[in-house]
Every structure is written in structure tokens, then in C-alpha cells.
Write a structure and sequence with these properties.
This protein folds into 2 domains: 156 residues, Ribosomal Protein S5, domain 2; 116 residues, GHMP kinase, C-terminal domain (Alpha-Beta Plaits), CATH 3.30.70. The protein is α+β, with helices and mostly antiparallel strands. The protein is globular. The protein contains 8 helices and 11 strands. The two termini are 34 Å apart.
């Protein structure tokens, strides 16, 4: 009998506007989260005590103890449910860390969903899982209910956004990470404010056309002068046919959207001559239902983007 398993898709931020710095040190923001078909994978086994194993192309340096968000998420779930169950989790890392793709948050949310569904009734509701996820990180809650969502407040207030179909996407993975701490430390007050049209993006996702709306990422203002390679990557994506190109989150990964899979694949060949790229799709919304975890992706689409 196969072990329960679940994919944890990466995310991109179609836009990300930092609005203001709050008294608690966090920033209010407005962002449009979207999952893509590059995913980590978690597999669950019963065990005498909690254990975490990590493998995969980006396993190096990933902790296997309480420093890992997966570990902290599962321990928090044990506390909340007061269960005596314990598990061994095998995590396959296909998403690089320090890339702005939300890999750690995605893994933590997937662990909550996977372990919760393995427990006897009564299990926690998706809403309560979102609450636990939000305790772990600002973007963790997004990954509990999959699909595009508008994130406000610290990114924890979520409004689902309809996406009518997949969108061809190309990720470019630089050979250097950028920590979230560093990225926020480089934000200056003059960079803050609204620059992306939320209504226009909602309309476009409902019926994607060749030309996405204008959008921004505040972190580009802070990071491109320090990491000129990022500006080169964005220029290369546009030159290769991307209809829209941005830094994802706080970087270092960049992405381009394309009018067709063929256009994306041509760009992957061109840009991939000298950079690591992943050809993937932006995924429509799909809410997981009880009994659906198994080996089926929560987003209802094949996962695991093609690395070129």
C-alpha cells in the first residue's frame, strides 16, 4: 500500500506592492499570489516520534529539526489536536530556498493538510488550518487553500481570485539566494505605495489575453541596484517573448508569462543556454477535499515543472 503523499507547489507574486510600514515592524502590502507547477513533495509514514527526512535537488542546507517550518507546523498541529499520533515525513525539495517562491511556506502548509487528513475525526477545518499556517509565516496561509488569491494586511488576509485557465510561465533561478530579511532591510520609505491595478488583474485572470495589466514589485526598486543580474534576467525574459516579467516575492527568482506554451518553450531554450530555467504553468484554483490528498495534486493539475 502506497504512503499518503502531497505536492507543495511554489508560488509567484504577479504583483507585490508594499504600502506602509506598521508600528509592529511588519509592512502592509497588496499582492496577487499564484501557484505554479513546480512543486516539492511530502510523503507521510507512521512513526514512534516526529522525524523529517529531506532529499531532492535543493536538499542541501535544509534543516531536519525544529528549524524547519514543516517540523514546526506538524508540532503545532499535534498541540492543537491533542493527538498521540506521530509521523516520519519525507520531503523532496524541488523548489530552491531564498528564491521568493515560497517553498518553505508551501511545505509547511502541505504538511498541515497531509497530517491533518491522516488523523482520526474530528479533524481541523481548512479555516483553522489557515489560522495555524498564518502563525508560521505571512504567506503560509495562502498555501492551505490553493489557487490565486489577493493578499492584504501582512499577506494573511486572503481573497480568492478566479483564474479560468493555466498560463504558460518560465521561472529563472539565479545562482544566488536573497534572504527576506535582507530584502526588507533595503526598503526605503520612498519606495512604498500602490502601483498595481488590482481590479485590472482580477479581470485579466478571469479571461487571460495576450497582454497582462501593468504591475509592480516594490522589491525590484530595492534589489535591482544591488543585484544587477536581476535586471538582466528581466530584460532577457522580455526579449525572449515574455508578455510580463517580474521578480517573484523578495527574490531571487524571476518569472515571465507567455501567450502560449510554444512561446514559453522557445524562451526556455534561449534563456536556458546560460541560466537555470523551469518551464511551468500558473495554476487555477482548486480547493482540496477530504480523501483527495493521496498522490493527487491539490491544484488538480500535473505538477513538477520541466527544468531546462
Amino acid at each position: 500500500m502506497s504512503s499518503p503523499a502531497i505536492e507543495a507547489p511554489a508560488k509567484i507574486n504577479l504583483f507585490l506592492d508594499l504600502l506602509r510600514k506598521r508600528a509592529d515592524g511588519y509592512h502592509d502590502l497588496s499582492t496577487l499570489f499564484a501557484e505554479v507547477s513546480l512543486a516539492d513533495r511530502l510523503e507521510l509514514h507512521d512513526a514512534a516520534q516526529l522525524a523529517l527526512e529531506v532529499d531532492g535537488p535543493f536538499a542541501a542546507g535544509v534543516p531536519t529539526d525544529e528549524r524547519n517550518l514543516v517540523w514546526r507546523a506538524v508540532e503545532r498541529l499535534y498541540q492543537e489536536t491533542r493527538t498521540a499520533s506521530r509521523h516520519r515525513i519525507r520531503l523532496t525539495k524541488n523548489i530552491p530556498h531564498g528564491a521568493g517562491l515560497g517553498g518553505g511556506s508551501a511545505d509547511a502548509a502541505a504538511a498541515l493538510v497531509l497530517v491533518n487528513q491522516s488523523l482520526p475525526e474530528p479533524r481541523l477545518s481548512p479555516g483553522r488550518l489557515e489560522g495555524l499556517a498564518a502563525e508560521l509565516g505571512s504567506d503560509c496561509a495562502f498555501f492551505v487553500r490553493t489557487g490565486p488569491a489577493l493578499g492584504t494586511d501582512r499577506g494573511t488576509m486572503l481573497e480568492p481570485v478566479k483564474l479560468s485557465r493555466t498560463i504558460p510561465c518560465l521561472l529563472v533561478l539565479p545562482d544566488f539566494p536573497i534572504s527576506t530579511r535582507e530584502a526588507y532591510a533595503r526598503i526605503a520609505p520612498g519606495m512604498l505605495g500602490t502601483r498595481s491595478d488590482v481590479a485590472a488583474w482580477k479581470s485579466w485572470l478571469a479571461a487571460p489575453s495576450a497582454n497582462p495589466p501593468a504591475g509592480a514589485n516594490t522589491f525590484e526598486d530595492a534589489l535591482l541596484p544591488v543585484y544587477p543580474e536581476l535586471a538582466l534576467i528581466l530584460s532577457e525574459l522580455t526579449a525572449a517573448g515574455a508578455t510580463y516579467a517580474r521578480l517573484s516575492g523578495s527574490g531571487s527568482a524571476c518569472f515571465g508569462l507567455f501567450a502560449s506554451n510554444a512561446a514559453r518553450d522557445r524562451a526556455a531554450t534561449k534563456v536556458g543556454e546560460h541560466r537555470q530555467v523551469v518551464a511551468c504553468q500558473v495554476l487555477p484554483r482548486h480547493v482540496p477535499r477530504p480523501g483527495e490528498v493521496g498522490r493527487v495534486s491539490r491544484s488538480g493539475w500535473p505538477l513538477g515543472g520541466t527544468t531546462v
